[in-house]
Amino acid sequence: IDIGPFRLVFTQSRGRGSSAxxxxxxxxxxxxxxxxxxxxxxxxVGATTQxxxxxxxxxxxxxxxxxxxxxxxxxxxxxxxIRKFLDDGFFACWLNRDKAAIARALESLRxxxxxxxxxxxxxxxxxxxFSSGGxxxxxxxxxGKIVDFVFRMxxxxxxxxxxxxxSEAAHDELKNELSCEDAGRHEMRDFEVTYQFx
Length: 198
Fold this sequence. Notes:
Blueprint (H helix, E strand, L loop, with lengths): L1 E2 L2 E2 L17 H8 L1 E12 L14 H18 L3 E6 L2 E7 L3 H17 L4 E12 L13 H16 L3 E3 L1 H7 L9 E3 L8 E3 L1
Parallel strand pairs: 6-7
Antiparallel strand pairs: 1-2, 3-5, 3-6, 4-5, 8-9
Helix pairs in contact: 2-3
C-alpha cells in the first residue's frame, strides 16, 4: 500500500492449519455481544429572565460560559464526558461507572443549581446498552430512542416546574444513594406509554 512517500508491505507466514473447529457464526455472535451500564444526563438553562443575580460587570453569555465550565469539571471529575454542547446546555454520559460516582455528580450539580447562576433543569436516565460484532458498547452506540428519551424527560421536567427529574430506571439504581420524591407518571411526546419519574 503506497501512502504518499511511504510504502506499507504486509506479509503472513504460512503455517500448519489449526485442528480446532472454526467457530460458527452463531457462536461468534453470542460471544461478541457486549453491554454497558449507561447513564445519560441533559442539563438546560432556563429562559434568559431566569438568569438572576448576575455579578456586576458580567453579562449572560459570560455567566453561561462559566456555568458550562463548572459543569464540565464536575462531570469529568466523576468519570463522565460531555458528549454534546447545546445552545443552552449540554448532554453528558457515563459508561460503566459505579453508582457512587453518579451520586457525587448529581449532588455537585444540585449544589450548583442552588446558586442559580444561571438557573437550570436537569434530567437523568439509566439504561443497559448492548452492542455486537466485537465492538464494545461505547459512546458511539448512544443514539436513537435512548437519547430522545432523556431529552424528552428534560421537557417533562420543565413542564412540571421541576429542576431535577430522574427516570424510574435511574431511581431503581440510585434509591439507596440519594433521597428522591415521587414525581408521578407522565406521557412523553413520541413515546406511546406513560413513564414513572422521581
